[in-house]
Design goal:
CATH superfamily of the largest domain: Chloramphenicol acetyltransferase-like domain
Low-confidence stretches: none
Number of domains: 2
Largest sheet: 6 strands, mixed
Strand content: 15-25%
Order of helices and strands: EEEHEEEHEEHHEHHEEHHHEEEEH
Radius of gyration: 22 Å
Strand order of the largest sheet: 1-6-7-8-3-13
Number of strands: 15
Distance between the termini: 36 Å
Length: about 450
């Protein structure tokens, strides 16, 4: 991007009131190796008068300081425990980072409802990138970038070890409510009181004395690499963005039921769309027929545990669902076959399944293998489309970088629509779009 984004101010923002000084332990789910990265959101807002820019910037800085009071661990620093068992957060009100920037190259029309031209084209809308979330860097970065037409791009980076998608969206909506309000006291509370309580995921151990066998949890099980998988799926990536409205999703559900096994009576929009994207991606990349492929996706376990987790729990409360198939079966058996695999993967996740995952990652630090895997992350049901900092609701919600991980995104004013964004090798883009758009 060169000098397409220039930085005007960067400062540490600390909580506006005193917060507990403590060292808080993260759970085994929080501490998983594959979560040691930053969740990066890019929210685009409509133009507002230049005369409002200074007051909007001030409102965001003030609101961030106030939001860090109930969510004070986001002003701390993540580190590994000395015994290596889990991670922890050192809470000393060290602060988050707020950046104001501007761009005289980009306008809203250059970004809205489009995929970036390259994976990293929008990288400078959230700076700096965090390579190691355990390096003592702030777990929260907010960057407000004013575009040339007066619109705003708000980039947010949140350490995934502290929050999952639901938790991060809860925080962002509270932050936004504070920014939108002219009230500077404590009258605005989070919709749900933030709950740390990571000990709630220290589930009672089963009676088995042996460590859970990874083979019983397919998301952690390695599969043979028959095609140089990582090179095939990661080379020369080009971002894509396709929107499915309610009519498209209803068509997919009908096709899925027609091609499913006997006994299937219904599928959700997520099940059919995830299966359709997975199948289209696999066909476009032309894997060997006997290559085992997996679709991994997060499953919220807040209400699947016994007892369930309280409202306001903002830590990582998900496990990975895993649908698995050979490339040949995924292609030949149709979208109903894939939808059934996704549906049954969801149904397998109960309290006992979660316990086995926690035991495995606690004892062996197991990590999902990348071979054969497409990851789908559902941002379309997090409530990010409601985040209003006083500039109106976002016209677009998406990632800072569009990579090979597939995102399901919300669509403004279409609650039943989903935007699918994923980067595909350039050589396979045309086929992928063809398969995805021809039901």
């Amino acid at each position: 991007m060169g000098s397409s984004v220039r930085f005007r101010e960067a400062l540490a923002v600390t909580p506006s009131a005193s917060t507990p000084a403590a060292v808080l332990q993260l759970s085994a789910l929080d501490s998983q190796l594959f979560l040691r990265f930053t969740i990066e959101y890019l929210l685009l807002f409509p133009p507002c008068p230049a005369s409002d820019h200074a007051s909007t910037t001030a409102a965001l800085k003030s609101a961030l300081a106030r939001a860090l009071v109930p969510y004070y661990p986001l002003a701390g620093r993540v580190r590994a425990r000395h015994d290596g068992s889990c991670l922890e957060v050192v809470c000393r009100a060290q602060g988050a980072v707020f950046i104001e920037a501007f761009s005289d190259r980009f306008s809203l029309g250059d970004l809205h409802d489009k995929a970036p031209k390259t994976v990293n084209q929008w990288r400078k809308f959230l700076y700096p990138p965090v390579a190691d979330v355990l390096a003592g860097l702030p777990p929260l970065v907010v960057q407000l970038t004013w575009l040339r037409d007066g619109s705003a791009a708000v980039g947010i980076g949140i350490n995934h070890c502290i929050c999952d998608g639901i938790g991060s969206a809860d925080f962002l909506n509270h932050f936004a409510e504070l920014a939108k309000s002219s009230v500077l006291n404590d009258s605005i509370k989070p919709a749900h009181k933030p709950v740390w309580d990571r000990h709630l995921l220290n589930l009672p151990s089963t009676k088995n004395t042996q460590v859970t066998n990874p083979a019983t949890l397919p998301e952690f099980n390695q599969v043979p690499d028959l095609c140089g998988f990582m090179t095939r799926v990661s080379s020369d990536l080009r971002p894509t963005s396709i929107t499915f409205n309610k009519r498209h999703l209803d068509q997919l559900k009908s096709i899925a039921l027609d091609t499913s096994r006997l006994g299937e009576s219904s599928f959700t929009s997520f099940e059919v769309l995830a299966a359709h994207v997975w199948r289209s991606w696999a066909r476009a990349l032309n894997f060997p027929a006997n290559q085992t492929l997996k679709l991994l996706f997060s499953i919220n376990v807040r209400n699947r545990l016994k007892p369930g987790l309280p409202d306001g729990y903002y830590g990582n409360a998900f496990v990975l669902g895993c649908a698995q198939s050979s490339a040949r079966e995924l292609e030949e058996k149709g979208v109903g076959y894939g939808s059934g695999l996704v549906k049954r993967a969801k149904e397998r996740v109960d309290s006992d399944h979660v316990r086995r995952v926690i035991e495995l990652v606690s004892e062996s630090r197991a990590c999902p293998d990348s071979v054969g895997v497409l990851i789908v992350s559902q941002w379309s049901r997090l409530g990010l489309e409601r985040v209003d900092f006083g500039m109106g609701r976002p016209v677009s919600v998406g990632p800072i970088c569009c990579d090979r991980y597939c995102l399901f995104l919300p669509v403004k004013d279409q609650s039943d629509a989903v935007k699918v964004m994923v980067a595909v090798p350039t050589s396979a883009v045309d086929e992928y779009i063809y398969y995805l758009t021809s039901h």
